[in-house]
Each structure stands twice: as structure tokens, then as C-alpha cells.
Amino acid sequence: MTEHNFKSMRTAMVESQLRTSDVNDPRVIAAMANVAREAFLPNDRQALAYIDRPVKLTEGRWLNPPLATGRLLTAASIAPDDNVLLIGAATGYTAALLSQLAASVVAVEEDEALLPRAKAVLAGYGNVKLVSAALNQGSKKYAPYSLIVIDGAVEEIPSALVKQVGDGGRLVAAVLDRGVARLAIGRKSGQAFGMTHFADCESVPLPGFEKPKSFTF
User: Fold this and answer.
1) Which residues contact 20 (CB under 8 A, 6 or more apart)?
2) Among 13, 28, 98, 215, which has the minimal tally of Cβ within 10 Å of its Cβ?
3) Residues 148, 161: contact at Cβ < 8 Å?
4) Does residue 82 lie in a domain region?
5) What keywords is this UniProt entry annotated with (predicted)?
6) Total domain count for the chain?
């Protein structure tokens, strides 16, 4: 498949998947129209880069559909001076988008099978720092963050991540509610933090964010 083919598919993604579904931030649209999504996929799956469904990366990890990513980034209202923590960098696609929208990006990934491609593709993005660490622990070293983006669906938001949100900062994620992924944004004011759901959208679960199992007798 040629670069021209991919560019045409990227344009179609923007026009048919994003603009028609409340992805209306011009900067988010521009970033998603500019970043070559196929570069972040294994060679044998690049033809699937612009479909409206998840694309498998490794066992247990997927690239989220474009709409889920676009809706989260739109809701986040990213400012050019934001310091962003990305949870679930995978092969680097969302980190590349954020690099065009924010001042700095700390991208956390724990899967050693995904890190080599992320390192290679993100090498040219000077404001992205790739960190190998547990997803549910984030990166305290560079906190506080004005924005945390969890790139996947989670059952709960760990307190370790909430603590890394700066006062007045935001956190966006897909929160699983009885099997349904609900996109949500949280804001921090002092020690208070709460999440507000704004849309249901397909998003693939991230490992390590499961609620503790409860037992009944």
C-alpha cells in the first residue's frame, strides 16, 4: 500500500469517523490528519490502520479505534503549555498526537514487546519522554501533570495516578461500567477529584486497572 493510499484513508477517517462524531477541536483534527497511524502498527496490520475498530498489537494489547482517541483528546481541551502524562503508550500513536498538542509528554508503557517500536517511531518527537514502568503507577518523577490521558478502558482510576494530577488539572479515560466503556473526564481541585462521563465509546481494556474481587458468603 502506498503513502498516497494511506493519506487518502487518513482523510476519510477524519471526515467520516471524527468530524461526524463530536471530534470538533481543530487542533485535534489537525494532529490526527497529520500523524501517520500506520507507522505505529506491525507491518502486516498497517492496512487496518484507519478502520473504526481496535487493531491488535500484541497478545492483550490493542490500538484503540480513532474515535475513542479523538473524543478523549477533544474533551481534554489540551493547551499548548500542558505537561501531559500518557498511560498506555503502546507503540506510540497517542504520544505522537499529544506531542503536537502539548508542551511535553511523558509516555508510560510496561509491555516490553511494544517498547522497541515506540522508541523507534517516537525518536523524532523531541518533546516526548518514553518511560518503562507499570501503567497503574504512572511516573511520579515528572509530576505534577496538568493532564493525564489513560489510553484504554479501566475499571478504576488508581489513587497513584490521581495524586500525580496537579491542582486544577484533568484526567481523561474510558471507565468500564458493567462492561460498557464510558468516556469520562476528571478534574482536581485541592484534594477533591471527581469523574464525569460524557459518552459511551468502544475502548479496549488496559491491564492492571481491575477492581479488587469482592467475595460474598
Assistant:
1) none
2) 215
3) yes
4) yes
5) Methyltransferase, Transferase
6) 1
